[in-house]
Amino acid sequence: MIARTVPTLRRAVDNLRKRKATIALVPTMGALHDGHVSLVRLARRRASRVVVSIFVNPTQFAPTEDFGAYPRTWKSDIAKLAAEDVDIVWHPGVEAMYPEGFATRIVPEGPALAGLEDRFRPHFFGGVATVVGKLFTQCRPDFAIFGEKDFQQLRVVTQMARDLDLGVKVIGSRTVRERDGLAMSSRNVYLSPQERQTATVLYRAMKDSAGRIKSGEAIAPAIARGARTIEAAGFALDYFEARHAETLAPVTTRKDGPLRILVAAKLGSTRLIDNIAV
Question: What Pfam families is this protein classified in (predicted)?
Fold first, then answer.
């Protein structure tokens, strides 16, 4: 079923609830790839019914970013979701999500102010938190599935659901990668053939730095080496950092807690993000 208005969605969700169904939500912006399909399959394992939202959210794009050019592949998306037996596709227009007079925003703190994505996209997490908060109240899921590739986003959404008592268990799903290690992303289609080959440097640099840290090298020089590798390949590096895997706080040694290496860098006109556990 495809729902395009809140009342239609609510009726569909109510019908599922009457049958004692558990519901998992997979929020997406469309342009679905195998990474998204893996989220849907995890949702199916966690709940008896699956709702997938497709909404390109304008409030998380800055004026200089690619909202208008963001890939939209509706027919292909629906075919993928039908093949996975998704129960409801929630596909609202902008007017349904942000009707005239809309004047309320969620302003997240904590992991949203970690000095990673928020340093370069200060508008982003307010837009994400607001739209995800709406999706949670519209769909009323028991579970919500998010990919670990957007790791800071996963932490922000998890904190928001907990802080606001939204009754949703947020579950992170491991990053799905191409055979050469590049994290699957809807934005990969923007890469030229040469850039696509170069893009694998991000994963290799993270793996190298993580291996050095695991073998006892201090964090600072291991991270510095990875950053140099990425810049030497032609990337414009925004950040390449080791952080606490739960709080995203800066770390200086492995004793500071579980670690995550996070990277954001621009190759040509395409900005890529990724992360791995240490």
Answer: Pantoate_ligase
